[in-house]
Amino acid sequence: MEPKDQDNFLKLAVKGFKSMAKDTASFKNKDLFKLAKKAQQIGSKGFLQFQNWFQKLDKGDKLVLAGEISYYTKQKDSTIEKMLKFKFESTEVKEALRQKMIVKPRIDVKSFKEQQEIDMEEAAYVADYFNIIDLLAKDLSDIMKKAFKKNDIETINNIARFAKHRVTTKGQGKGKLYLYTQGTKR
Question: Whole-structure pTM over 0.85, yes or no?
Fold first, then answer.
């Protein structure tokens, strides 16, 4: 490992910690935010100081920081493992996770359905794209239903426009909408 490589890695990591701190600032549990801020602060002091501080962290914090470096900097896991001298797949970490020895989880892991129930501004959410699309569709559906109750057809049309549709209540019974493709209104 060349000192230049270490410095470049740390610069990227510090930028990642800064983004991580920004993203986790709104979490109810401030532990992750504090960890990101501390990592950013120590990382600014140099690679050796960061490495020494990182080695003293508990396994859970190491795993979180290493994972977040991977996420925010798009570094390969092998590069992160080499620079931090920490293995993602070490038997020690696997055993700690298996026995739930990691003292306090940093993020409550929720199922997709549980995640849909919380306010999206409360926390960041990472999932496969089908689940994200389903979540967005549900949110848009809720917005359009509220707009319909308020007789705000314009909001519904603004959303429907992306799918090349329009709606109208003209000539329809109470509680009914007429859906048509743009350009084919009768």
Answer: no
